[in-house]
Design a protein that fits this description.
alpha/beta, Rossmann fold, 2 domains, 8 helices, globular
């Protein structure tokens, strides 16, 4: 019998949260996570380029573990903000994060040179209002860097509401007042195929039952091969399926 997914309140498989890059061990763990977690790895690949020349004052909305803070150049002024229930919903609770509740973020309008928003918009119940607030935070000609998943499983259930297409992203951003909109795919159909198989593998490895975990251990070499193929595939842009999108726009 097909399930009524409206009744789902939690996910069966939840990957570990990212940790701040505060030690050599954390950096190694995050590197391994990016190699095996293609969503995270493709994000890092894009943001390493986009943030290399990030100017002035940067607002990281829904900052989580602030894992991209270290990609900013010296001299940038970083402000991380997140919801006051981020720990309950997503497992993140860094002490130097400004917390907010509701539509008001508690930051000054029109003062930020860049707003960074990574894998957050799908968790927002009103994306249009959220993007309008983002626009308000930026200086004139300020830049938005936004990432969203596309071929991704339903995660952080039930707080995962949307999947966006390039046309939908452009529509939302133009209505919010943005211009110079650029939407780039992260990965291609080959990347997505590897990602789906690897997701099944991790559900086995970290699922319940000794038999499932044993199968996961046996399949480890195959997953390593798939991870290598998938990471190499990120160099090529083709097809209409992808892991997600990296978006830039200006106020």
């Amino acid at each position: 019998m097909t399930r009524n997914l409206v009744n789902r309140t939690a996910e069966n498989f939840k990957p570990p949260v990212f940790k701040p890059n505060v030690s050599a061990r954390n950096r190694l763990e995050n590197w391994m996570r990016r190699f095996l977690d293609l969503q995270a790895g493709s994000l890092w690949r894009d943001l390493r380029v986009e943030l290399a020349g990030a100017p002035g004052t940067v607002l990281d909305v829904g900052c989580g573990a602030q894992v991209y803070r270290g990609l900013l150049p010296a001299g940038s002024v970083y402000h991380g903000i997140d919801t006051d229930d981020a720990k309950v919903r997503f497992g993140y609770d860094l002490p130097d994060t400004h917390r907010f509740n509701g539509a008001e973020w508690g930051v000054e309008a029109g003062v930020f040179d860049m707003v960074l928003c990574t894998e957050v918009l799908e968790h927002v119940d009103d994306p249009a209002a959220f993007l309008s607030r983002t626009h308000l935070c930026l200086r004139p000609n300020g830049r938005l860097i936004l990432t969203v998943p596309f071929a991704a499983r339903w995660h952080f259930i039930p707080h995962d509401y949307w999947r966006f297409t390039p046309a939908g992203l452009e529509l939302l951003l133009r209505r919010a007042g943005f211009s110079d909109i650029c939407v780039k795919a992260r990965g291609n159909p080959l990347t997505v195929a590897c990602y789906k198989v690897m997701t099944l593998y991790f559900m086995l490895l970290f699922g319940t039952g000794a038999a499932k975990r044993a199968i996961g251990v046996v399949l480890l070499p195959l997953v390593g091969l798939l991870a290598c193929i998938a990471n190499l595939s990120l160099r090529n842009d083709w097809g209409d399926d992808c892991l997600g999108y990296t978006v830039t726009a200006r106020r």
